[in-house]
Input
Amino acid sequence: MSRKYFGTDGIRGTANTPPMTPEIALRVGMAAARQFMRGSHRHRVVIGKDTRLSGYMLEPALTAGFISMGMDVVLVGPMPTPAIGMLTRSLRGDLGVMISASHNPYHDNGLKLFGPDGYKLSDAVEQEIESRLEDGFQHELAAPDKLGRARRLEDAQGRYIEFVKNTFPRGLRLDGCKVVIDCANGSGYHVAPPVLFELGAEVVSIGVKPDGFNINRGCGSTDTKLMRQAVIENDADIGIALDGDADRVVIADESGAIVDGDQIMALIADDWHREGRLRGGVVATVMSNLGFERYLTGRGIQVARTRVGDRYVVECMRANEYNLGGEQSGHIIMSDYSTTGDGLIAALQVLAVKAATGRRASEFCRVFDPLPQRLKNVHYNGAKPLANPLVQRAVREVEDRLGAHGRLLIRESGTEPVIRVMVEAEDEALMNTALDEIVAVIEKTAA
Output
């Protein structure tokens, strides 16, 4: 069955335009309540959000939907996405919802749903909820005396701060370490700086003044210029950039040079492997650099690959009992600590290596030499470029030329109307030529 609402990471779209309208949010609340109300106990849903203006519109609509079906609502306000997974489990919730469009600009928003185990819902469960959205609910509404209640959890911030701090190795501190933290004017703005400060770091905070419109704008993990400048200007030891809902992280060393998610995963895998903490291997997506895979397999660490999307990484981790996985974008999942990507916890793993070794970030953050890699997004309107014979022939020709010395990855985005084209190769000139050829054909057919 085709999916009308759910994509690769919940439901996402432009605020106040279908599917991100209060009416649809109301119905999502009602449908999700019906999906998860099982048994005679008082049912509970935890709702968090990031700092977008449209959160004020979607939060009460969701709340009304859940309450109308007899489910109690716990509101935690602006909180990182991983905090919702943690709080859903901690509060014995039946369901969790994060209102966020992650790294997208303010005018977008989304709904990410978590089950009672704190994990994002599977495709199958999302499909069941989607099938309920078109149903009438008039015969399933709660009786007046069975309506749910809503309350705000005042200490949600403190709970998450303590949870994150407890993932940092005991006996280590960040005394003498100056850290720049860029919170992208998003949901990590009031939790990330205190975590670093309480662990002993000298903290330089940027991107901590959200106004409803400036989330991810010129800051955060998708635009690291301000963070890199702040590292240099403040003579900091390391820089950390989160995205709007703080489930992704990008690091900068003391020179301002960027360390992406592949390098962070490789660093953590190496560290855990030496300590005997790494279980099974590492799960990455098809976007991770071939140099990443060659490095880890050369050290006896297995690498499994999945399609793009943290939910698929998590599914593979759970199926194979791995405890580390993630994406090149900086979405790092450590199942010993969290059920989804947590940018702050991942950053603490990097800081733990620095605290334990006393080395500069530039000396340990880049653990492998990546193959030259380029990614380009091609926008399209309505057509299906990947089904075009001209595109398919160009893809075959490029793959033949790359052979075993490179890779071509081409896919439709699950959250916006773009084709993502990625080419990597040992020969940079071949990489550039291959990418330009494919992009030109797609642009021609998508026009």
